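name: query_chain
kind: protein
chains: 1
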Amino acid sequence: MVYRYITNDPTIIVNPKTIRNKALYYNTVALLEKEPKLKKLFLELYSFCDTYLLYKKDSDFSVTLTHAPCEEKYLAKNDTISRKKMIKCVSRSKNPNMPLDELLPYTHEEAKENQHYHIFGHLSQPSIRQYKNKICIDTSAIYGNTLSCAIIEDKTINFYSAPFESKQKKAEQTYNILFDF
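structure:
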């Protein structure tokens, strides 16, 4: 979203909610709009970003990292539809009363007992959530919870979290828990 805001993406619908969200969740935009040199560096860095990252140690161990969960048929593919699916999933805000496991059934239906992991974010959770080979590492840093990461070395995945540093106002968050069965 930061990229879309600072490039004046015409598909962003400007209304009171988007203006409020920009100020609350995307406060980096204001900084980048004030600092042209920083904005230029951000855009340069963004241009090097991939939609997904694939770590393949061997035929028995691999990790695909995406921004959002998606069905396996879209993982690590470069067509337009797959790229969109790896970035954004079905809207939770448009389905507020639906449990995530019902809204995104593929996250558990496609889960396997193997070492071909899919690590994703985009679904704010109170802690790292894992079900078989599906792992959500979005631990709600934007809402004032911890910032988490996965460190992949050889055939091992370790997870680390850092506390919220109060650089912005902590927001309210009601969790819709993933893998809540």
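note: Residues 36-47 form the longest helix (12 residues).
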